[in-house]
Amino acid sequence: MVTGGARPRRRKWRRAKSKRKLQRAAKDSGPEALAPDEAMHRDQPGRLLLSALNYWEVERELIEERLANIRSATAS
After folding, report:
1. I want to staple 34 with a disulfide (CB 3.0 to 4.6 A). Which of 19, 38, 62, 66 is the partner?
2. How far is residue 68's CA from residue 61's CA, in Å, rounded to a whole number?
């Protein structure tokens, strides 16, 4: 005859084992687990922002240069 006490212990062991697996999985996953393509896409917004800032800086310099030319032409 099988006692009823053996089953709950087995369930606890299985639950403890699954918790350990979950802890290992959580520990293993991290930023270094990203694929190279995913890492590149993560850096993409920063690269786009720098490109946009560079564009507007050049554009502003051109506008300032044009204004300076107009001011010097009208001052003459």
Report:
1. 38
2. 10
Q: Which helix (H) or strand (E) is 51 found in, with range?
A: helix 36-75
Cα separation, 10 vs 3, whole angstroms: 12
Q: What are the extents of the domains in the chain?
A: 45-76
Which amino acid is present at 71? R
Neighbours of 34 (CB within 10 A): 13
Give the residue from 59, 41, 62 showing the smallest Cα distance to 51. 59
Task: Give the separation between CA 8 and CA 27, rounded to whole angstroms.
Answer: 28
> What type of residue sits at position 58?
V
Instruction: Return d(Cα 17, Cα 12) in angstroms, integer.
Output: 8
| Contacts (Cβ under 8 Å, ≥6 apart) of 53 | none
Answer for the pair 34, 42: CB distance below 8 angstroms, yes or no: yes
